[in-house]
Amino acid sequence: MYDELLLYGVTDRHWLNGRRLYDDVKESLDGGVTFIQLREKTLDEETFLLEAKEIKSLCEAYHVPFVINDNVDIAKKINADGVHVGQDDMNVEDVRRILGEEKIIGVSASSVEEALCAEKGGADYLGVGAVFPTSSKDDASDVSFEILKEICEAVSIPVIAIGGISKENVHKLSGTGIVGIAVISAIFGKEDIKQAAIDLKKETRKALYD
Q: Which residues of the sequence carry a binding annotation for 4-amino-2-methyl-5-(diphosphooxymethyl)pyrimidine (predicted)?
């Protein structure tokens, strides 16, 4: 799973500007995104379900893991690879009971305590942030590089950083212990999504592994 978490793309309808989400996700996959999370906060259930099925099929064609943000019911209905939940969503144990042992469960964490609790509950990976200022989540609390490093050292499951990461600042995360990054606008907010993914993946690999 470590390689699959290198460049984790999180969708956001805010950046579509009249384009289809399917096309944006395809461009990101063409650019080398290694993991996709479908994040929808405004769609009705039926539309969300149809969209999730479409994006799932696309990710399958690229052999890239596909998870749903928060909505465990949708993830189960379409047999997604898994789900990502926050601290205010369903707890990990309940998600695992619903989806089964083989599914991927990611959990957001912003402290060592939350990280250890998620790992104990059965999380497969952690998304830790926000590591830089971000406009995508109003309630995102800042996580210092020191706390990020402490979380990586405290758990045995892979950790990815999220929040305001770009190709210009990803190098600052070098040495923290993360295995990858999760981004929204750094890919989906760009005019050339494919090239943005190519460039960011290159910089991320350089920062974390070179």
A: 37-41, 69, 108, 137
